[in-house]
Amino acid sequence: MTLEERISEWMDAHEAELVRDISRLVAIPSVKGEAAPGAPFGVECRRALDEMTALCGEYGFATAIYGGAAGSADYNEKPAALDILGHLDVVGAGEGWDTEPYAATLGADGCLYGRGVDDDKGSVIMALYGMRCLKELGLELAGGCRLIYGTDEESGSADLPYYYASNAPAPNTFTPDTGFPVFNTEKGRYCVKITRGHAADADAGARIISASGGFRANVVPGDAGALLAGITAGEVLALASGRAAALGVELSAADTPEGCRVAVHGRQAHAAEPWTGCNAVTALLELLAALPLGGAAHEDAAALSRFFPHGGWLGEALGIAQEDEVSGPLTISANVLSIDGSGCTLECDARVPLCANEENCRGRLVAALAEAGFMADGEMSPGHHTPGDGEFVRTLLACYEHYTGLPGECVATGGGTYVHDIPGGVGFGAYLPGFDTRLHGANERIRVSDALTAGKIFALAIARICKIKEDN
Ligand SMILES: [Zn+2]
Fold first, then answer.
1. What is the dihedral of CA 71, 77, 80, 81, to 10 degrees?
2. What is the pTM of this model?
3. What is the mean pLDDT of the chain?
4. How far does the centroid of ligand 1 lie from the alpha carbon of residue 120, in Å?
5. What distance in angstroms lies between residue 88's CA and the mean position of ligand 1's atoms?
6. Residue 118 is part of a domain; what is its CATH number?
7. Which residue range(s) make up the domain with 259?
8. Coil, strand, or helix at residue 93?
9. Helix (H) or strand (E) holding 223
């Protein structure tokens, strides 16, 4: 039997245990909580850390815990060759579940449901099973393999310094926190807050009293609204309904004692992928700009709409549109709006390609907005790239191809991953292309058969990167 076949047979024989161990972690609601002694990210994150550490110990791996924030399990005591970095914290369950989010539930469709089954508890267990498989096959490795599990990935990765302050990264690191095949390029990020102050509008004429939309700088807003004076709901609907339909949003308006309340409903999305949503803020700005209104707040709306036309997330109007072959185009999404009697603010989230720099990106945006009287504050942080043609990435792709029969290729992402600051790090697993895990949403899921495939891929990758000794 070849190594590949032995791995496959072992993994298939351990399906029930794999599901059971994922369930052990999912049962702990490890959402970030208040810091407590020995639990910098809350007691539930610490419980998840302890449970994972116990599990690794049960399979015979030497474990360690770092400041109550992260843990590790070692395959052997050989010089470091590979780190696998995952996390045990989860985002909150939210609404809309058909099953209990903190109880992994096997569906008739062959999928396992629960918060964290994919991101990232299930994926961490799949990596552990890669190690367990090789160990139980009795294979000795020439290099060291370490599984590292943190507890603060979802809230800013403040867990990583607890580990990396006293431990150097291995020569190779992958995180099973993205998807297959290999994510080797991450765009940089430029979060910018745009402001302009003005005097309150004179109390006369048709005007904007206030406008707002969005709730988080990294979320494309699904809802936005405004309060108008000197215009009726009937007039707004007659003038703007056609344009709203063309923009792809729902528009409603109602006359109230305070004025005419306008609401725009689009579709929420992640700021790294603005094309998957329909931005209610940019639609609102465009509709307000076209209404027969006057005053400073209306000038704000019209000016912002020129810089951020609805659907124009490439930054063309700001003079920063650019792209490179490795990371793709720059995107910028206007996500949190506030306009009132004293001025306006607009928070934007740009994902910038590797070719972006201070001169061709931030400098140009600041200058373009300054010309219109706006201030633009924010720092730009660089992207991350690990060459796709090195031995490490080629090995990962070959292992993926072996068990999936799918073409292995490198992928770029606009989101920042857990290995953003780790030199040579890549994202690798654990869901397969085309499968929707409902990341961070209700009914998060994995396909159990895919989890076994991921376990096999990880086992083979560990064996090849850490090199099986000749006499095995
Ligand atoms: Zn994650």
1. -110
2. 0.83
3. 95
4. 5
5. 8
6. 3.40.630.10
7. 188-380
8. coil
9. strand 223-229
